[in-house]
Amino acid sequence: MKKAIFLDRDGTLNVDHGYVYKIDDFQFIDGSIEALQELKSMGYLLVVVTNQSGIARGYFTEEQFLQLTEWFDWSLADRGVDLDGIYYCPHHPDGKGEFRQDCDCRKPKGGMLLQAIKELNIDPSKSFMIGDKIEDLQAGMKANVANKVLVKTGKPVTEQGKKLADYVIESVADLPKLIKQLKN
Ligand SMILES: O=P(O)(O)OC[C@@H](O)[C@H]1O[C@@H](OP(=O)(O)O)[C@@H](O)[C@@H](O)[C@@H]1O
Ligand SMILES: [Mg+2]
Ligand SMILES: [Zn+2]
């Protein structure tokens, strides 16, 4: 079984300008790409788990999301970071059409992580979930991910967030250092 880093997208890997779907609005958080390179070299699978309710809400189409995702995936591959999985939830209970669903994949539910664990043979007890919202941490809990990390680069950190998190760090750029410290 493999160890993995489950990565939230908006607010963790890129600046959350609010329902980002255009390449021009996609701004990597400082040091995030270098951190992913290092995490990869430490032997972690890198798995993105992102809520994209903008699709259900009609702010952008699934096709537009997939186009941005292709660009994002290639931008990282160009820098030596091959993502092992990208899982997304296009649903919202108040959404439109086929995407109006009270699904099992929207964080705080654990569906995306559970699917990745099964498909990629991940050991959650050796893995990390990193995100900017309580819902990210809760999804990690549902999937029994041992280490839940909250970053300060997205939504404001709340008291509840601090309580649920095993670690609070400035940004994903600090994750390799945190993991190395834990091992010593
Ligand atoms: O952080 P991840 O999961 O990668 O993606 C979050 C986005 O889909 C958007 O999710 C929304 O939450 P609601 O989905 O409307 O509750 C808001 O938090 C937006 O600011 C944010 O851009
Ligand atoms: Mg986020
Ligand atoms: Zn869903």
From TrEMBL:
Q: Alphabetically, which GO biological process terms does the record hold?
A: carbohydrate metabolic process
- Feature type site, description Stabilizes the phosphoryl group: T50, K107
GO MF annotations in UniProt:
metal ion binding; phosphatase activity
Q: Which residues bind substrate?
A: D8, R9, D10, D16, H17, G18, Y19, T50, N51, Q52, S53, R106, K107, K133
**Active site (UniProt):** D8, D10
Which GO cellular component terms, listed alphabetically, does the Swiss-Prot or TrEMBL entry include? cytoplasm
Site annotation Contributes to substrate recognition: residues: R106
Family affiliation: Belongs to the gmhB family.
Any idea what this protein is called?
D,D-heptose 1,7-bisphosphate phosphatase
Identify the species of origin: Lonepinella koalarum
